[in-house]
Amino acid sequence: MLDRRFISSFDGWFVVVLLSILSLGVLSIYTVTYAVSSKSHLPIYAKQMIWISLGLIVFFIAASIDYHEIARWSLFLYAGCVILLVMVLLVGRTGMGAQRWLSLGFFDVQPSEWIKLFVILVLARYFSTRTRLQGLSLKELIVPGLWVAVPLLLVLKQPDLGTALVLLFIFTVLVFLIGLRSRTVGFSILISLMAFPFVWEIFWNALKPYQRNRLIAFTNPALDPMGRGYHALQSKIAIGSGGWFGKGLFGGTQSQLNFLPEGHTDFIFAVFAEEWGFVGVFLLLILYFLLIGWGIDVASKAKDLLGVFMAAGIVSVLVFYLAVNIGMTLGVAPVVGIPLPLMSYGGNSILTTMAGLGLLLNIKMRRFMLFY
């Protein structure tokens, strides 16, 4: 239940930052889709507002249930999501060259979005009970490594390269945070060097042709400006044309004339940069840095190791999403289908991000409790 701790821990500036980013996202989606939305029954920006409303409900639920209780159910949540990932490969809906969704009629569930959160929960619970001053041994990495490897292989099969990279990043951040024994570090480096050619061969063969083309185009998009390098080139043109103060709402030529694909999802940052310019992008990044800084503060002041690792995992996902999404729109990272947190259109992305932020608030407001 909600109590006074919830109200006292609900920072006013955090609310302002969160609602500001969400509002800028809805506004950007509206400007780039209003012409298309007028022909549909429900505009895309209106759908995003519905998802945000549902996301706020998920946020309050995630914040109100003690995170220790949530952690106790982490294995069940993880196992259920893995089962859904298997079902996706069997009966999932295919869209844009990938099979990632389970259709429920009125709503498509994307288990690969939720598995990130559940992996954080199971890893945090495991590491919080096995952390040693001398670091983790190689044996202690086997179980959490399998927990990451199973969904990673399943999402690669869809294929979903972005989610696979996120899972690896979560595991790396938590292991780095805990530390490894010196002997484990040596073995890990040796095994990694020996296994790299085989792992790379498996990884490369698992990719779809369009994913390979994206990675190839990343090195030099100008080699195929109308094909493999089209997204990256148009995105950089949009960002550069924004100048200092932008072209204003509905003034972006790249987005309004449909030169920029996926302007309301993966490339919404380019749409925003074209309309708001350098000054607008600078202010947006300040909002994100404030949000991430708040998350880091929650992690550093958490009551126990479980809270520290949960918060660190959630913040790592936000940082990865932000860095890779902006990086791919600037052409300094390959296009891997990573959304911009809280801004890109997508129901599952909004719900999982809001759930993660709710858990962060959950950890913060319980750091002064004496007993669990």
The number of helical segments is: 15
Radius of gyration, in Å, reads 21 Å
Number of domains: 1
Main structural class: mainly alpha
3D structure, described in words:
With 372 residues, the chain is mainly α. It contains 15 helices and 3 strands. Strands 1-2-3 form a 3-stranded antiparallel sheet, with helices on one face. Strand 1 (93-95) and strand 2 (98-103) form a beta hairpin. Helix 2 runs antiparallel to helix 3, helix 6 runs antiparallel to helix 7 and helix 14 (305-330) packs antiparallel against helix 15. The chain is globular and about 55 Å long. The model has no long low-confidence stretch (mean pLDDT 81).
Features:
single chain, 372 residues, mainly alpha, 15 helices
Itemize the secondary structure elements and their pairings.
Elements: H1 4-9, H2 12-37, H3 44-64, H4 67-72, H5 74-91, E1 93-95, E2 98-103, E3 108-109, H6 111-128, H7 142-157, H8 161-178, H9 182-206, H10 209-219, H11 230-241, H12 253-256, H13 268-300, H14 305-330, H15 347-365
Antiparallel strand pairs: 1-2, 2-3
Helix pairs in contact: 2-3, 2-13, 3-15, 5-6, 5-7, 6-7, 6-8, 6-14, 7-8, 8-14, 11-13, 13-14, 14-15
